[in-house]
UniProtKB/TrEMBL annotation:
Keywords tagged on the record: Membrane, Transmembrane, Transmembrane helix
InterPro entries with a match to the protein in the record: TM2 (IPR007829), TM2D1-3-like (IPR050932)
Signal peptide residue numbers: none
Lineage: Bacteria, Pseudomonadati, Bacteroidota, Cytophagia, Cytophagales
Name of the protein: TM2 domain-containing protein
Subcellular location: Membrane
Membrane topology: Multi-pass membrane protein
UniProt key word ATP-binding: no
TM2 domain residues: 46-93
Top-rank lineage group of the source organism: Bacteria
Chief location: membrane
Listed transmembrane segments: 49-68, 74-95
Length: 112
């Protein structure tokens, strides 16, 4: 793939991934065949900042976990009212990393 396309992708979508993963993502994108580029263009990533805001506002309902695809954890969080509030507070610090990890998993599915 062209380096300019890869660099543009990284520049536009770098905030959705952990910074230490960006060099690996760039290398995988460089080695990706051109026919997969169209499927990569339609891939939607979750915004970690938006998920954090949702977690702060209505995190005790598990909505943040449902949005990133952790359905099981979302149900448990909903049933326990956010682990009696403790899990909700812990998620304020962990949810951005979990969102970026889910985005990386979604990208890996396309790159395989």
């Amino acid at each position: 793939m062209e380096a300019s396309k890869v660099d543009m992708f990284i520049m536009n979508n770098g905030k959705y991934f952990e910074s230490y993963q960006l060099p690996q993502i760039r290398e995988k994108l460089m080695n990706m065949p051109d026919d997969k580029w169209s499927s990569l263009q339609f891939l939607q990533f979750k915004d970690p900042t938006m998920i954090l805001i949702i977690s702060i506002v209505i995190g005790s309902l598990g909505i943040d976990r449902f949005m990133i695809g952790d359905t099981t954890l979302g149900i448990i969080k909903l049933i326990t009212c956010g682990g009696l509030g403790i899990w909700t507070i812990v998620d304020w610090f962990l949810i951005m990393g979990a969102t970026k990890e889910k985005n990386t998993e979604n990208l890996a599915r396309v790159l395989v």
